[in-house]
Amino acid sequence: MRKRLLPVLGVAGVILAVIVVLKVAPAGSATPQGSRTGWGDPDLQGIWTDDYQTPLQRPAKYATKELFTDEERAELDRQRAGILRRDQRVEVGSERDVAGAYNAVFQSIKHTGKRTSLVVDPPDGRIPELTPAAKERAATDRQFRLALLQATQTCKDNDAACAGGKYGPPSPRRAEVPPFYNTGRLNRSDGPEDRSMTERCMAAVMPDFGGYRRIVQAPGTVSIFYDVGQGQGWQRVITLEQVPHLPSSVRQRFGDSRGHWEGNTLVVDVTNFSPKSDFMGARENLHLVERWTRVDAKTLEYTVTIEDPTTWTRSWTVKQEMSRQDDQANRIYYEPRCHEGNYGLPALLSGTRAEEDAFKAGKGPDPATKDSATDFGTEGGVDALTGGG
Amino acid sequence: MPTKLTVLVMMTGVWLAGTAVPLQAHHAFAAEFDANKPVHFEGTVTKMEWINPHVWLHMDVKKPDGTVENWAFEAGTPNVLFRRGFTKESLLPGTKVVVEGYQAKNGLKRANGRDLTFPDGKKLFLGSSGTGAPYELTPNNQKAPPKN
Amino acid sequence: MSRRSLIAAILATAVVTAIVSVSVTRITGQTSRPARTSDGKPNFSGVWQVANEANWDLQAHEARAGAVTQRGVYPYAYAEVPAAPVLALGAAAGVPGSIGVVQGDKQIPYTAAAAMRKADNAAHWIDRDPELKCYLPGVPRATYMPYPFQIVQSGPKIQMIYTFANAARTIHLDNVVGPPDDTWMGHSVGRWEGDTLVVDVTHFNDKTWFDRAGNFHSDALHVVERFTPISADALRYEATIEDPKVFSRPWTIAMPIYRRLEPDIQLLDYPCIDFTEEFMYGHLRKQQLVKHWEGDTIAVDIRRKVPPGEQLFDWYGK
C-alpha cells in the first residue's frame, strides 16, 4: 500500500494544483494589460464619454447600412459645422428671436461618429414599433399638447410643431389636468408640473447616451457618477452582491441595479423604475440589461437592451463606444447640478403671472396665444444627426 | 422648419437622449423674456455667476439719461466653456461687454444675453484656453481668427 | 497505477480541493468585506450613517419643543412653544437634545459680526436653511445628515455617495487639477497618514450651512477631514473648519460613524428636488395648491406671498 501511496499523492497533488490554478485565475479570455483592479475585477474606472455624435436611430435612407464611409462622415461634419445654430438671428422683437436664447458658443458639437445609429438591434437601426396601447397614450398626450398650442402663432402659421393640431381660440382644455404625469414642456405655466423635467432640473434618465460618467470600483460595488447636459447630473450605485431586487412596491428614479461579472463584462439588470421616470415614453415598466466591457485601455463598450412590453412591441439594443477622458484635467464638472441655480423656473412662472395680470388689465395679449413650449424649431439650420439646431 | 423627428420629440414630450447638450435651451426663454422689450446695453461686468443651468453676467449699464443701473443677463451653460478650459478668471469684473437681449416679463432688471460681444464686435467665449475639449467639432462661425 | 489507487487519488483531490477552494473564495470572493483593501489600506467601502443630532445643531443643546418656536405663556426662553409652521406635528416636530460634536471648549469661534449673522440665520431658519430647498449640503454637513451614505473606495479615487439630494463627491488621492469655479461640495484631495484618511477640502462657495441652527461659512472655507478606523464597523470622523472671514481661529468637530450592518442594505432615493417644489415655487402658481388642512383639534390655513422685485430671487439664495 505504501509503495502506491506516493504516486497516488503525486497525482492528487498535480490534479489539485491544476484545479486551484483554474479557480484562482481570472475567468474568460485574455484581458488588456493592466486592466484589472487590485482585487482582480476587470477595471472599468475613469471618466468616459462618447467622443462622437451618432443619431439614436438610423435615418431611413441608410436601411441596413451600419457604418458611414469616411467621405460621408467628412461631409456630415462639413454640413454640421456650417449651420449657425443659435447664432442665427431672426427679426428682432419676435418670439423666435427670444427663443434663440444665447450665442452658439454655449453649444457643443462633436464630430460625426462611425455608426449610422446607436440602435444596433433591430437590424434596421430603428426603435421598434410602439404597442397599440402606447400609440394610444402618445396620441392622447399629443392631442392635449396641441390643444394648448391652439391659439398660438405656431399653429396659425401651420408650423410643423403644430402638425396634427389646428388654429383656433384658446382651448377650454387649458383648464384640464394633463392626461398623464407630464415630463415635457406644455404650452402652459400654471405651476412647475407644466414645465419639462429639464426645466425642473430633474431631466436625467436611465439609460443615458450623451453624458460623461466617472466610474469608481470597490469589491462588490460599482459607482457611476453621471454628468449630463446643463447640470442634470446624478449618482448611481451598482451592487454586485447576489441579492434580489427591491420589492416591487419600492420604485426608484433611476431604477434598481444588480450587477455581476460575465468574464470581462459587467452585466447589470435594472428594474423598479418610478412612474415619474420617462425614457422615450417608457415609465415604470422599463427593464434594462446593460453590458459594460473595457475593450482596450482607452475604450469602454456599452450596450444596453431596452424593453418595456407596455411600450414597445419588442426589445431593442443600443451600442456605443466611449473613450477615456483626461482625468488629470478633471474633465468632468463634478457638480453637475442645476437645481441650486435654477432661477429660470421662478422667473418663467412669475413672468407668466405678470402676463396674466397685464391681460386682465387690458394691457397685454392673452398668454394663451404665446408659445412657451416648442422653441419655434430650428432657425439656425438643422443638424442632420441630432435633428436640432 | 423642425424636422419630423424634432416634432415627434416635442409632441411626445420627451427629451431625446443621445446628445451631450439638449436640443432646446434648458428652459423656454420665450416664456421668461419679453419679445416686446428688446434691450441693447454696453456696460461693465460687476460679477459673474458660472452656474448651471445658465451663466449669469451682472453688469453696470449706463442708460441714455446717464444713470447707472445694475442688470443681470442670462446665457448658456458653463459646462461647455469649462470643458474648453475657461475658468472663473476668464471674464473678470471691469471688463466692458455689449449685450443684446430681451427684458424679463416680470419687469425686473434681467434679460437674456441673446448676443454677447466685446465692444469691437468679437463674440464672448470664442476659442479655448489650450486644454479645450479635443473631441469638439469647431463650427465655422466660431473658428478663432488667424493670428497675425 | 491500479484503478483503485486512481479512484482514491481523485477522491483525495476532491476533498482537498473542496477545503482549499473554500479558503480561496474567502480571499478572492467579491462578496467578502476585508478589513483591508488590496493595497493594504483600511477598507471604508460600504454603507455608513452617523447616530447623533449634529444636523440639528453642532453645539450641545437641550431638547426643544419645535424646530421653530415662539413665546409661550411666559416670557422665558425655556418656556417657548412650537410655532405655527410645525405645531400640527406635535411631539414629532421637536428638536432632540445633544451632547454636541464641537471639540475643545465646545464653542464656535465666530467673529463679532459673524456671530450676529449666525443668530439672524437661526431666527430665519425656514427661509434660509439650504437644506429645506434640497440644495447640496456641502462638507462636512453631508456626513452627518440623518440618512445613510456610501463609500466606494478604489485606490486613487474614493467616491462618497449621499442619500440626501443624491449628493456625491470624489476624493482624489492622485494628481488632479482643481475645479474652474467654487462649488457646493468643495474639491476633495485625500492622502493616507498611516491608517487615517486625511481629506483636504477647498474651493467652496459660501452657500451651505453646517446645520439647522444657522451655522454658516464664507467662500474662504477650508475643511480638513480625518477618517480613522475604530473597528471594522465603526470609524472616527473629525473635521477641522477654518474660515478667516467668519471664524477667529480653526475649530474641530468629531463623531463616530457606524456601518449599516443589514445584509441587503442599499441607498434609496430621497428625491427632494421633487419633494420641495411646492415649498419653493408654490407661491408662483396660477392658483394656490396647498391651502388648508383639517384635523380634530386644529385647522391649518396657508397663505402664500411673493417677495417683491429682486427679493423674489434673493430668497433662492443668490
Task: Tell me what you see in this structure.
The complex is a heterotrimer of chains A (389), B (148) and C (318). Chain A is of the alpha+beta class and 389 residues long. Chain A is 21% helix and 19% strand. In chain A, the strands form 2 sheets. In chain A, strands 1, 4, 5, 6, 7, 8, 9, 10, 11 and 12 form a 10-stranded antiparallel beta sheet that branches. Chain A is globular. In chain B, 12% of the residues lie in helices and 31% in strands. A 6-stranded mixed beta sheet of chain B has the order 5-3-2-1-4-6. Residues 1-23 of chain B have low confidence and may be disordered. Chain C is of the alpha+beta class. Chain C is 17% helix and 23% strand. Chain C contains 6 helices and 13 strands. Chain C has helices at residues 3-28, 112-123, 125-128, 272-275, 277-281, 311-314, and strands at 46-49, 69-70, 81-82, 149-153, 157-162, 168-172, 187-193, 196-202, 222-231, 234-242, 251-259, 292-294, 299-301. The radius of gyration of chain C is 25 Å and the shape is globular.
Q: Secondary-structure map with pairings?
A:
The complex is a heterotrimer of chains A (389), B (148) and C (318).
Chain A: H1 2-24, E1 46-49, E2 52-53, H2 70-82, H3 95-100, E3 111-112, E4 119-121, H4 132-149, H5 153-156, E5 212-218, E6 221-227, E7 234-239, E8 256-262, E9 265-271, E10 287-296, E11 299-307, E12 316-324, H6 344-360
Parallel strand pairs in A: 2-3
Antiparallel strand pairs in A: 1-5, 1-12, 4-12, 5-6, 6-7, 8-9, 9-10, 10-11, 11-12
Chain B: H1 4-11, H2 29-32, E1 33-49, E2 56-62, E3 68-74, H3 78-83, E4 96-104, E5 110-112, E6 115-117
Chain C: H1 3-28, E1 46-49, E2 69-70, E3 81-82, H2 112-123, H3 125-128, E4 149-153, E5 157-162, E6 168-172, E7 187-193, E8 196-202, E9 222-231, E10 234-242, E11 251-259, H4 272-275, H5 277-281, E12 292-294, E13 299-301, H6 311-314
Parallel strand pairs in C: 6-7
Antiparallel strand pairs in C: 1-4, 1-11, 2-3, 4-5, 5-6, 7-8, 8-9, 9-10, 10-11, 12-13
Quick summary:
The complex is a heterotrimer of chains A (389), B (148) and C (318). Chain B has 148 residues and is mainly beta.
Task: Report the radius of gyration of chain B as a whole number of Å.
Answer: 17 Å
Described by its quaternary structure, the protein is heterotrimer
H/E order of the elements of chain B?
A: HHEEEHEEE
Bin the strand percentage of chain B: 25-35%
In CATH, the architecture of the domain at 46-52 and 97-259 in chain C is Beta Barrel
Any idea what the radius of gyration of chain C is?
25 Å
Describe the largest sheet of chain B.
6 strands, mixed
- The low-confidence parts of chain B are 1-23
Low-pLDDT runs of chain C: 20-31
Instruction: Determine the CATH topology of the domain at 46-52 and 97-259 in chain C.
Output: Lipocalin
Question: Termini distance of chain C?
Answer: 86 Å
**Spatial order of strands in the largest sheet of chain B:** 5-3-2-1-4-6
Termini separation of chain B comes to 40 Å
Strand arrangement, major sheet of chain C: 1-4-5-6-7-8-9-10-11
